[in-house]
Amino acid sequence: MSAVDRVIQSKLDHLGVPLRVQLPSGAKLGRNDAAVEIVFHDSAALGPLATGNLGALGSDIVSGKVSVQGGMRDLMHVVAALVPDEGQPQRPRPWQRAWWNLASIMRHSRDRDAAQIRFHYDVSDDFYRIWLDPLQVYSCAYFRDPNMDLAQAQVAKLDHICRKLDLRPGERFVDIGAGWGALLFHAAETYGVDATGITLSQNQFDHVTRQIQERGLGDRVRILLCDYRDLSPDQPFDKLASVGMFEHVGRANMATYCKRIHDLLRPGGMALNHGISVTGVDEAVVGGGMGDFIEKYIFPGGELIHVSQAIRQLSLTGLEMVDTENLRPHYARTLWCWSDRLESRLTEAEAVLRQTLSVDRAAEVLRAFRLYLAGCALAFEEGWTALYQILLTRPDDTGAASDLPGTGSSYPFRRDYIYEPR
């Protein structure tokens, strides 16, 4: 037995859950009753398992050097037990911060941002339809009632956002990063707003354009294929939402992004930023190489900051944070719903991907998404990442109609309005 094999055997001996490993030689280590077996086809792939480099191990699974027998939920139990400390946020060294800032500047031009968004979202609309809800809402759901299914929880999330923003008929509303349009349509059809959405995904733009025509909403809903930095409306908006966009901005552009939110709002208006945050302070990042895996296979250019940094950047523009809510457990459940739905239709999913990708590329994309959805579910369950809705106002020095003096915005400074019957 080699030194690496001995390290792996030691890990298996001290693991809290059963795991079986098959070496390239065909020899097997671990327990026979394990729900998960990791099969190594290349001896070079044993190193990441021995050292606890989850990202590198994931890459080897995607490339086919390693295969997994067993369900994703069982695999994530193994991951959590195998390297219990590797996923914890790790504080970067000074040179790492300097490199991040330089790298962020280099990879967040308008052209690169557009290419990175299309890399992820334009894989195949039919692929996303397999595991998303019927409205194709690709962000954290809100399980207002624990008995809700995914579709119900996504509608509840859309409504939660609209209620927080206190949307009113006739108001001008903008959705930065509109996805497949679910929030635009909910806001327009349920709350009577004039809605504008922007996206960098050609597939999403085409889908929303068709939906606008089919729903007969051409007079009050529109979608633009543009960068948030290039959005220049004739007049500022009353209300603004940014859902799942924040993660794509990059550290180098965070101040620009926050200033753009401020400038797009009229004085007294309200904005809601819904985005993922790392839970480690001081710009700590998720460890174990998981961030590197997501950067390579899922979200190139994605960068996470701590919620305190987000609030600071937003506040520096002159916006006032009036409410912040952590939906971390909701996102864990959402991701497990997506993962379970994909796992139940793997053959169909691969066939759909083969319609636009080569056979080998389709298999790689499917393996990457399987690991991504389950791995992110684990990260939110373990508290390595979180999801925050930050509600903001642009103060109005002239005052606003309110039963409280000094409100300075349309926010009523009480939470019950979100839950009152309408």
From TrEMBL:
<keyword id="KW-0489">Methyltransferase</keyword>
<keyword id="KW-0443">Lipid metabolism</keyword>
<protein>
    <submittedName>
        <fullName>Class I SAM-dependent methyltransferase</fullName>
        <ecNumber>2.1.1.-</ecNumber>
    </submittedName>
</protein>
<dbReference type="Pfam" id="PF02353">
    <property type="entry name" value="CMAS"/>
</dbReference>
<dbReference type="InterPro" id="IPR029063">
    <property type="entry name" value="SAM-dependent_MTases_sf"/>
</dbReference>
<dbReference type="InterPro" id="IPR050723">
    <property type="entry name" value="CFA/CMAS"/>
</dbReference>
<dbReference type="GO" id="GO:0032259">
    <property type="term" value="P:methylation"/>
</dbReference>
<dbReference type="GO" id="GO:0008168">
    <property type="term" value="F:methyltransferase activity"/>
</dbReference>
<keyword id="KW-0808">Transferase</keyword>
<keyword id="KW-0949">S-adenosyl-L-methionine</keyword>
<dbReference type="InterPro" id="IPR003333">
    <property type="entry name" value="CMAS"/>
</dbReference>
<comment type="similarity">
    <text>Belongs to the CFA/CMAS family.</text>
</comment>
